[in-house]
Amino acid sequence: MKKRILSLAITLALIFTLIPYYPATTAAVYYDIQVLQQEYGHINGFYQGVATFRRDDKFGVINKTGKEVVPPIYDLALTNDVFHLHERDDVILVELDGKRGLIDFTGKEVLSPVYYTKGEGYVIGGIYATGVFYKAEDFDSDKEYSMPIYDFIDVSIEGMAAVRVGGTADQWGRVLGGKWGFIDKTGKEIIPLIYDEVSYFSDGLARVRIIGEGTGFIDRTGKLVIPLIYSHASVFSGDMAIVSDNSGTFYIDKDGNKLASVDSKYTVDYWNDNNYSEGIALTHDNGKYGFIDSMGKDVIPPTYDAIFPFADGLAKVRFGGKHGFIDKTGKEIVPPKYDFVGDFSNGIATIRLDGKWGCIDNTGKEIVPPTHVFTVLFSEGFAQVNIGGKYGFIDLTGKEIIPPVYDLAWQFSEGLAAVRKGEKWGYIDPTGKEVIPIAFEHATSFSDGVAAVKLDGKWAILTLSDAPTEATAPNLDSADTWAHIHITEAIDKGFLPVSLQGIYKNAITRSEFVTLAMSWLRYHTGLTVAQLVEKYAVAPDRTFTDTTDPVIIAAAQLDITAGIGGGQFGVNTQFNREQAAMMLMKVHIILNKAGGNFNTINPPDFGFADILHAGEGIRIAVNFVGNYEVMSGSGSNFNPKETFSRQHSITVFNNIDRRESR
Question: Is pLDDT larger for residue 279 or for residue 590?
Fold first, then answer.
């Protein structure tokens, strides 16, 4: 026996009620909707099982069960999905009275909010920031620079944070004076603040310098494993570093042994800590850049205006204001012809040319030509693209998988993408099927199986599940008894949109009936709206002046509706029985094309007395629905002008399904 579900219409009056909804798709998506008791101004996307929320201009934290684990006491709260904490996924950046700190997911303070920041103050690595945290008593917003307690640099590599006490910095962040050391993620001082300069840890070692002595390397305990004997040194990469002393420039290993000399005609870019990667090092000569190998020999002569670190075997280069890619041999895999190129990820990089965006693969092939208005970013093998102001999705080959019919779309996450039509949000799967109805006022991407949505002014949590769960029957108080079974079956089958669940005795509008008809066709054929149009459209250019709803336009192009005349569809116009019969017959025409077996050409006269003098099209449609037991009349009359209700509409579509299933 199929599981039944609660109507969304009743949930808004319930507290923490679970409402499963099971759309009919080839790969079913099951989920619960948990309407939250508290009022929320906004709930951000979930990350690691928690989401920050806003209430009355204060921020707190909620977990995926709906429990408020941190009350709304902060002026700002942001999780790692915004501030990219890298190795510390268990902290949240908070701000209180203009001061910033960090808390864990239980609300416990990891770094008390007693520091001011200038600029964005991004948290990057462990628990600290790329910007500068200032002690409250030292902060003066009118000064160019105030004395920091610590100036935190990159802790995203190997979990240690370099910190400084004393010194000053200019507006570009260049540091003068002060002493540096290292702390761990808990803030404990691991290495004393005795150095004038330090790098981050790389391959277990960090470069350190004391003015008047020299540059060397320490390990993670603070032990000086390579003495302060060099004038310059790069960071370690691949168990090698480049150093200079009075004898020249050469490579050393992690024991300080000399490996190979570097041609003295080149200057090594020591203080770019990305200067050495994948076995070759960055050099420059007369303002141009190139690479040498681990033996100190030329690999790429210094000919480019800029070269960026290698990643996945390719390095970005800039020449004459244009960007491209080279490999380790210096071969231009992508000639410098683009205004911008992004980093490769999974073999794909974004490109920009003349203000338009596209993508290339790692052979330089344009899999997506630079024709899109917005950046093309892939997630789970798909990228949302904007064409003519509408959003769709392409795959890794650049092929359009989901046509641009949405007003906004988020990236795919956990197999689903949040999309918006008009003012409503829902979710589609990678085939383009709207597997979670477009009925929400707001929707976030899924993370760890949960997403935050807003329905009729209430915030709720969607939780994905592997299979249906037991639930109570839908609330049918607003429907007549005869319609209960049809409404229940329609919800159970998954073709009744959420927006039509409730107030069942209300007259249905033209737009609502068409929405129901298209949802039923998608359910019965297994095709998306776009695929239905592609296969069966008979009026591909048909549009209306009073709506741009892609579902209504698709129905018009399928000739299910022709509108009310004058180029208008009649969005909120009420619907009568003869109009319903006409549309139902046209739905059957589509169904026949998809493999149905209904006589829609000239069905026998069913005998309704009140349609004898109606137009031929109306007579055929009414005879059709009568003969196939889709709609019935009252006595010998069909009552063609009588208003049609939601419950009648749901019933006739369920009758079609029953008939088709015989």
Answer: 590
